[in-house]
Amino acid sequence: MRILVTGGAGFIGSALIRHLIRDSDHEVLNFDKLTYAGVLTSLEPIDADPRYSFIQGDICDADAVRTAITEFRPDVIAHLAAESHVDRSIDGPGEFIQTNIVGTFNMLQQALGYWRELDEADQAAFRFHHISTDEVFGSLGDEGYFTETTSYDPRSPYSASKAASDHLVRAWHETYGLPTLITNCSNNYGPYHFPEKLIPLIIIRALAGDPLPVYGDGSNVRDWLYVEDHARALRRVFEQGAPGETYNVGGNSERRNIDVVRTICETLDRESPRADGKPYADQIGFVTDRLGHDHRYAIDASKIRAELGWEPIETFEDGIAKTVRWYLDNRSWWQAILDQRYDTGRLGKGK
Length: 351
Ligand code: NAD
Description:
Cofactor: NAD(+)
CATH architecture of the domain at 2-186 and 227-250 and 294-314: 3-Layer(aba) Sandwich
Pfam families: GDP_Man_Dehyd (PF16363)
CATH superfamily of the domain at 2-186 and 227-250 and 294-314: NAD(P)-binding Rossmann-like Domain
Bound molecules: nicotinamide-adenine-dinucleotide
CATH topology of the domain at 2-186 and 227-250 and 294-314: Rossmann fold
Shape: globular
Number of strands: 12
GO molecular function, one term: dTDP-glucose 4,6-dehydratase activity
Number of helices: 12
Oligomer: single chain
Family: Belongs to the NAD(P)-dependent epimerase/dehydratase family. dTDP-glucose dehydratase subfamily.
CATH class of the domain at 2-186 and 227-250 and 294-314: Alpha Beta
Helix content: 40-55%
Distance between the termini: 32 Å
Strand content: 15-25%
């Protein structure tokens, strides 16, 4: 298969591409604008492979997208390009509207134009796979889970923009017959995670001896999905999922934010003890809560398990141990990002 991945220089997109090049025969074209979040060094492990290619381009640029699609002739478009950081969406929502909504509209239009020109067999095999978030469903109380039929109730500019893009994708299936797939997943974590997100931010600040910021009282609950489990899920969905369907993808790992931070501290205590012998948890400090901070997200992933046979392999404790080890062993990857353009003094989000 030929897979066009948008946002392939991002956290999840690069994990998907590494997985596809290492563990499948698929060819991959990575189409990415390289915003602040696009990191090409995340692809170094596979970028010499002849089945991988890269084009720098903007999903909002109709000509660039059309050219990439018509020249590459994909069987699948896996659409991950997005603005993804909730805190940034609160500070400056305009970019989120443009990329996540207008960009997805443009991807759908160009995909539709291409799909209409395919012969019948290729039309039937084609998939437009839109990667989205569980945040579109809003916030849960202490009980219950998001299913594929939960009503949409987005509450941040980020989740509202993702909800809008999900609606567009469904509409292009219902109205024009484009064979679409949507996955809504929980918080990802793992290697190559950009330093502004909660887990890498805590690891990096802990190692620097800086205070570890936790929003509010740290009681917000998120489900955590190891990014390599997610990459396997995405492949399973675009290879075997039924057109027009939505699948929730979760990690079976609900944790309060404060417990995530404590687990990281305890792992670092074992793997890389502080010079003064004190626990990293001494660095934890509570900061003013994020505006509109959703209380709890939790995913019911029984549909993808029952229909496509996918389930997460990684436990949260093993996944965190692997992630902490990766950040200790790959300092040059994240140090280069910090040196070039990013200050971890900025707060992380709840993911
Ligand atoms: P990321 O921020 O790490 O990467 C986004 C990538 O998209 C970057 O490489 C960036 O350069 C690229 N990009 C941004 N705007 C672009 C544009 N206009 N044209 C082309 N490329 C552009 O994001 P991520 O964490 O890898 O998330 C990928 C997708 O998964 C997003 O759609 C996000 O909404 C969704 N998602 C992420 C999570 C998570 O926990 N990270 C959870 C649920 C859903």
